[in-house]
Amino acid sequence: MVVTWLAAFWLGLIAPASVPEARETGGEVIVDVLEVLDEADSSSYVSVELNRGDRVKVLGSNPSGWLKIAPPPGSFLWIEATMVQDQKNGTGTITAERATVRSAAAGARMPGPPRSERKRGAIVRLLDHPPLTVGTGPKARTWRAIAPSDGDVRYVLADGIKLDGSKIVDTQVRPAQVDPGGGDAQSAIRKFEDALERSRRIDDKVAQIKQKLGASRTQSERSYDAKGLLQASSRKVEGQKVHALIGPQGVPIAYLTIPPGIATSRLLARKVGVRGEVHYNESLGTRLITVRDLDPLDKPR
Q1: Residue 142 within a domain
Q2: Dist. CA 183–CA 160, nearest whole Å
Q3: CB-based contact 189:58 (threshold 8 Å)
Q4: In which order are the strands placed within the sheet that holds 91-94?
Q5: Is the dihedral of CA 250, 300, 209, 30 positive or negative?
Q6: What span, in angstroms and rounded, lies between the C-alpha atoms of 26 and 262?
Q7: Burial tier of 172 (Cβ tally within 10 Å: 0-12, 13-18, 19+)
Q8: 7 to 39, 198, 200, 222: CA distances (angstroms)
Q9: What's the sign of the alpha-carbon dihedral 260, 301, 234, 62?
């Protein structure tokens, strides 16, 4: 009986978290800093950072632990100034056949990745936000800030939000209910042992990644293979999404294949130094770097 209860307890602790389905409602941030991302992906572009106590409008959820929210206050997008005519009433009209709208983050020195397109004649709401100029001389490009369109959404991790009318989402699943007077004790023990073995393998992998990262940092005196602003990208190489490294002229100077274990969410739209295996990729038309080391070269925004 005691063994059965012990197995149930440990299985409960290491079981995967579940996130209750969320429908349209309000929510409150319950962590000190919560990143708002373009997609339900931790490597996606971070457009806004919310603080404890901020409010959001929650539109839905998915089984992977993300909540879909309306763009929070402070959200905006970039559009190239030459493609929109200011109507002097707070709106602008798209003059190009197709104008690319890019993600934006306050304080970032580069527009983010492409997010959508607007066709000629479409109306956008211009915001009273300083324009952003990238590059110098005849290659300089200026971007205007516009408001997110109706139906635009963003994503946050569910465990950072308390939904209105509900308790704080518990990221630890409670121990499984086991009848102390019955059930298959041997089966519970086997599940317990299997779960412990999986946990040990995960711990070993994490330790290996940390060791590799630590070894790469000891080589900080070496020069970087490339430097630039890190951006998310829609480009893929052999089915794997790659990140873009943007040079001083505002165009990609390389693309990066970033392995698991190297966090990128807080490095997007920042200047970074890259070390890794470099080769030319014909489909991309530039260098492709398999990253070993990714270091921030500026202060976080």
Answers
A1: yes
A2: 37
A3: no
A4: 84-86, 91-94, 123-125
A5: negative
A6: 33
A7: exposed
A8: 38, 15, 16, 50
A9: positive
Pairwise CA distance, residues 231 & 246, whole Å: 7
Tokens representing residue 99 in the block: 């104008």
- Distance from C-alpha of 237 to C-alpha of 195, rounded to nearest angstrom: 35
pLDDT digits (tens, 9 = 90+) for 105-149: 988 888 888 889 999 999 999 999 999 998 888 888 999 999 999
At which of 146, 178, 200 does a domain end?
146
Please count the structural domains in the chain. 2
- Tell me the whole-structure pTM to 2 decimals: 0.52
Would you say residue 238 lies in a domain? yes
9: left (phi over 0), alpha (psi -120 to 50) or beta: alpha
CA 69/CA 61 separation, integer angstroms = 9
* 114 is a domain residue: yes
- Per residue in 236-285, pLDDT (tens digit) is 888 788 999 998 888 899 999 988 778 787 888 889 999 988 888 888 88
- Beta strands, E only, 88-189: 91-94, 98-103, 114-119, 123-125, 132-134, 141-146, 154-157, 161-163
Examine residue 25 and state whether it is found in any structural domain, yes or no.
no
The domain in which residue 253 lies consists of 226-296
